[in-house]
Amino acid sequence: MRSTAETTIRTAIVEDIRDIREGLTTLINFTEGFSCNGSYRSMEDAIPRIKGNVPDVLLSDIGLPGMDGIEGIKILKELYPEMTVLMLTVYDDDERIFDAICAGATGYLLKRTSPAKLLENIREAVSGGAPMSPEVASRVIKLFREVRPTEKVDHDLTPHETRLLKLLVDGHNYTTAAEELGVSINTIKFHMRHIYEKLQVHSKSEAVSLALKGRIV
């Protein structure tokens, strides 16, 4: 979390519709306290070009040509865990909302969000909030009320593996987890291979998602 009072919020956009992409770029660049440091048509375009120019906030559509926005932010959050991601999309179904949040999105906004509200939401996210369009927030609350929590399963994880998984759920990457546990990154990678095998997953984001869904930590 950081103060936005005296800091320009660097914002990037992933949106395939040119008029929307250029409109968002203009809105951000012509609003005091904001700057657009990246505007991309696809995740294939964004992922390599964000390197060295990482924004504070990434606004991403879901329905993109090629790789969709949810798959893209899984990769970007692995690379840049400190980057805040807000989905900006027309989709408001339960599955996409849930998948986007599990993939690392901090907030979920619909494209009909007004420009003033969008800027307010970006500020809120940078300050530690989790902005959602009202319709989306209602669906999230309904989803939590209807979904019965599964019984807690440990998947035969050792106490050390469980502690490492908890650090990843809390937002740590391999480097900061290694510092927290006082071990090398190679040791973290060694344990993660065993965690992946036991959980039957293939990535950090899948492990975190399963840990949350299965109440492992």
How would you characterize the overall build of this protein?
The protein has 10 helices and 5 strands. The protein has 217 residues and is an alpha/beta fold. The chain folds into 2 domains: 9-146, Rossmann fold, CATH 3.40.50.2300; 159-213, Orthogonal Bundle (Arc Repressor Mutant, subunit A), CATH 1.10.10. Strands 2-1-3-4-5 form a 5-stranded parallel β-sheet, sandwiched between helices. The radius of gyration is 18 Å and the shape is globular.
Oligomer: single chain
Task: Please state the CA-atom Rg, rounded to the nearest Å.
Answer: 18 Å
Order of helices and strands: EHEHEHEHEHHHHHH
Q: What portion of residues belong to β-strands?
A: 5-15%
What is the topology, as strand order, of the major beta sheet? 2-1-3-4-5
What sort of overall outline do the alpha carbons produce when their principal axes are compared? globular
Low confidence ranges: 1-5
CATH topology of the largest domain: Rossmann fold
Q: How many strands appear in the DSSP assignment?
A: 5
Structural class: alpha/beta
Total domain modules: 2
Q: Could you tell me how far the N terminus lies from the C terminus, measured between alpha carbons in angstroms? A: 24 Å
What's the architecture of the largest domain, going by CATH? 3-Layer(aba) Sandwich
Q: What is the count of DSSP helices, taking H or I runs of 4+ residues?
A: 10
**Mean pLDDT score:** 89
Which CATH first-tier class of the largest domain would you pick? Answer: Alpha Beta
CATH superfamily of the largest domain: Response regulator
**What fraction, in percent, of the residue positions are helical?**
40-55%
* Biggest sheet architecture: 5 strands, parallel
